[in-house]
Each structure stands twice: as C-alpha cells, then as structure tokens.
DNA sequence: AGCGACCCGTAACGTACGGTACGGTTCGCG
DNA sequence: CGCGAACCGTACCGTACGTTACGGGTCGCT
C-alpha cells in the first residue's frame, strides 16, 4: 500500500522529489527503458524504498505526473483593466504557455507514457494527465473568456465550446505530430508567432463587433 | 528478413490480410496484450509463419498500419462544379470523415501503439501513421483549398497553413482526449454538427469576401 | 553505548514475451 | 504414389523486468 504521494496525497519530501525528477529525466532521455532498476540506479536509492514510498510502478508513475503538474501550476493571470489590448495579452499568454508546454520534452514523454498506459485497461494515468493538462487550462481560461464577454469584448454562447475552438486554433496538429515522433522545431519566436496568429483568428471568430452592445 | 509486406511492399495475400485483421482486432480489444502468441492464436497460424512473413514484431506492426491505411484510402472527391455550396460540401465531407476516423476504435488503438513505439528510439511506426493520417489528408485537402482559391471562394496565402487551421478547427481536443482514455461519445449526429461548425468557422476566416476579385 | 528506524545495494524469484526449433499434417505436382 | 513446400501447433530458450528479501550501514534518540 502506498504511504505517500497517494492519488490525493500530500506533497513529496525533498528526497522523494529527487526520485521523481530522476523518473522525469529517464522518461525524457529514453522513454522506453523506464524500469524500476533504472530509476533506483539514477536516483541512488534502493528498489525497496521505491516500493515503500510509491506502492508499485503505477504509483510511482502517478506520483511523477502529479509532481510535474505541481511544477507547472501556474502563474495567475490577475484580472487587469481588461480592455481589448489586455484581453489579447492574456489570451496570447495562454496560447504561448500552452504551446511551450506541449512541445517540451517532458510533456511529450509524459503524454506518451499516459497514452501507452491508457491502452491497458484500468489506469488513472490518462485521466491524471488530462486533468492537469487539457482540463486545467480550460478551467483557467474560461473565466478570462467570460470576463471578456462581460466586458463586451467577446461574443460566444458557451464558454466550453469557445475554449475548444481556442484549443484547436492554438494546438492544431502540433501535439499529435510531436507525440508520433515528428521533428517539429518550435523555437520561442515561432511560438510567439503562432500564438499571435491563433489569437487573431480567435478574435475574428469571437470578437464582439461592438464593445458593450447593451451599455 | 521480411519477404512480404515490406515497408515498400506489395499487397498482402488474403491469408495475410486475415492475420493483419486479427492484429487489428486484438489491438482494439485490449491494446496491451498484443503478443505474438496471441496473434498466432487469434489468426490460427503458427508463430513461425508470422516470423517468416513479417520478419519480426515491428514488421508485423508496420504491415498492420499499412493494411489499415489501405482499407481507409479513400474515396475521391472529384472536382465538381465548385460553387460555394459544392466547396462547403467538400470541406464538410473531409471534416466528417476525419472526425469519424480519429474517433474510431481502430484509429485510437493504432495511434496509441505508434505513440508508445515512438518513445523508443528507432521506429518508423510513428512516421507511417503520420504519413497515412495527418499528412495524407493534408495532401488530399490542399488541392481542394487551392481550387477554392482559384475560383475566388477562398482567401489564404499558404495552403499548408490554411490546412493546419482547418485541422485544428475540426479536431480541436478530440484526438488527445480519446488517446488519453477520455470517454467522448461522438455519434454521427454530433460529428455532422461539429463538421458544420468547423466549416462555418473556417469560411469565416478564409472565405473570400468577393468571389473572383480580379476577374 | 545500545537500539530502532530508515535506507542503500544487491541478489533472488517468478513470469511474460520475443524469437527459434521441431514434429506432424495438408496440398500441389510430377 | 512419392516428394517437397508450406504451414499449424507446441515446446523450448533466453532475457527483461516487476517485485520481494536480505545484509549492512547511517542517523537520531535515550
């Protein structure tokens, strides 16, 4: 039975964090040979300790996913004045952050692992990755969209649907291509450019023609 | 050494097709336990035959990907009269077909396998899936887009970029969610609706304001 | 100093699976 | 009929890996 880093668990100790970082390192370097032996060797700990701390292999992987998620979580986009320029900045920030995330080696390795795991039957790895990726950013972006709507800057019926459009315009084919091993260099300059284009398109679809139509 | 169904290979014999269908069936039912033993049992053939025909496990998987691709490939969208209604129909057909494909159990299983494989180093599985999925549809759609532009119905600079926008608007978060195990029922009615919405959005972004501006 | 908790390193066990070998059967052909 | 090619079913081998067990070492507490 796991003692720490359970699915609802508390924060890992620094030593445990070092172990989880070792897992992340191994995943990125060579996603396949992620064996308990390799983790123990890399983290300079015994396998017995791994099993005491994390229960079994799946527990270790789950803890790793949550550890990585806790590292990314997330600068607040505090609601500023919210004119159209501020809204653009906010959306552009989200888009660039998302592209940076999904193109990072860590995210690629983690998603590959979770997807491979989802092929087997029961496993919350996929659910964990979804909750901390796709759905987390959705819940953080939707309030921004709704504030934009209240300010008369955006026009849409359903925030979820609008977010999915945003998601598609930003991500396009990037994630699936990277997951399938396509070389797709995404330097910061191109990320900025892609984010800009995506926001232009999103505002073309959902920007309100007239600010505050009923004001 | 593989004798048949090489990476450039000729069509598999009917018996080989039955074997590859057995692989597809196993993949869909329980993607993990896709062992050579299980394939042989399901296909009622000996492992020795599998190795003679396909070389090794990777050869079998590659042949399976190509077999599936050959089954999907692809009704022609012959260039019809090409007014705006015909263009809409054509795009809507592409969108619905793509959504149907990526939400099919076979595609999900195949992509999971290829993604897991891409975590290991050398492997053309990911490349194969990309070539027969994302890039195949791109090459088939771009001529339609360009005809639409020539007819003054569409406005864009780069067909590749326009296609990626199309791809994002159609696919959104569907594929990644399905790959990660999210339940996401996508009945034909919803596919049709999603395709319609995606085409509306695409035309809002790239529809030419005035047909044949220089005519 | 003595004791217990914690942990490292390594060895050991069981199993699953990719790959190979072999006997037996069917089928086409001279 | 006689023969060889193709193939099925099964047994077998080697290895990799998850998991457990054990010996020894370090640290904190009394």
From TrEMBL, chains A, B:
<keyword id="KW-0805">Transcription regulation</keyword>
<dbReference type="InterPro" id="IPR050109">
    <property type="entry name" value="HTH-type_TetR-like_transc_reg"/>
</dbReference>
<dbReference type="GO" id="GO:0000976">
    <property type="term" value="F:transcription cis-regulatory region binding"/>
</dbReference>
<feature type="domain" description="HTH tetR-type">
    <location>
        <begin position="13"/>
        <end position="72"/>
    </location>
</feature>
<dbReference type="InterPro" id="IPR009057">
    <property type="entry name" value="Homeodomain-like_sf"/>
</dbReference>
<feature type="DNA-binding region" description="H-T-H motif">
    <location>
        <begin position="35"/>
        <end position="54"/>
    </location>
</feature>
<protein>
    <submittedName>
        <fullName>TetR family transcriptional regulator</fullName>
    </submittedName>
</protein>
<dbReference type="InterPro" id="IPR001647">
    <property type="entry name" value="HTH_TetR"/>
</dbReference>
<dbReference type="InterPro" id="IPR036271">
    <property type="entry name" value="Tet_transcr_reg_TetR-rel_C_sf"/>
</dbReference>
<dbReference type="Pfam" id="PF00440">
    <property type="entry name" value="TetR_N"/>
</dbReference>
<dbReference type="GO" id="GO:0003700">
    <property type="term" value="F:DNA-binding transcription factor activity"/>
</dbReference>
<dbReference type="InterPro" id="IPR039536">
    <property type="entry name" value="TetR_C_Proteobacteria"/>
</dbReference>
<keyword id="KW-0238">DNA-binding</keyword>
<dbReference type="Pfam" id="PF14246">
    <property type="entry name" value="TetR_C_7"/>
</dbReference>
<keyword id="KW-0804">Transcription</keyword>
């Amino acid at each position: 039975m796991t003692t720490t880093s359970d699915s609802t668990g508390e924060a890992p100790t620094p030593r445990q964090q070092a172990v989880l970082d070792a897992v992340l390192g191994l995943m990125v370097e060579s996603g396949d040979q992620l064996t308990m032996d390799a983790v123990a060797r890399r983290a300079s700990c015994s396998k017995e300790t791994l099993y005491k701390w994390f229960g079994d292999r799946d527990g270790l992987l789950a803890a790793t996913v949550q550890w990585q998620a806790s590292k990314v979580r997330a600068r607040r986009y505090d609601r500023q004045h919210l004119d159209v320029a501020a809204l653009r900045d906010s959306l552009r920030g989200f888009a660039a952050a998302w592209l940076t995330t999904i193109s990072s080696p860590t995210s690629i390795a983690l998603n590959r692992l979770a997807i491979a795991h989802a092929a087997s039957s029961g496993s919350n790895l996929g659910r964990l990755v979804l909750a901390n990726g796709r759905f987390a950013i959705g819940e953080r972006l939707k309030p921004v969209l709704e504030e934009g709507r209240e300010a008369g800057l955006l026009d849409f019926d359903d925030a979820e649907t609008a977010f999915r459009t945003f998601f598609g315009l930003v991500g396009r084919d990037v994630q699936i291509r990277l997951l399938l091993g396509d070389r797709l260099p995404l330097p910061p300059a191109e990320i900025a450019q892609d984010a800009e284009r995506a926001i232009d398109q999103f505002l073309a679809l959902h920007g309100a023609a007239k600010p505050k139509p009923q004001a």
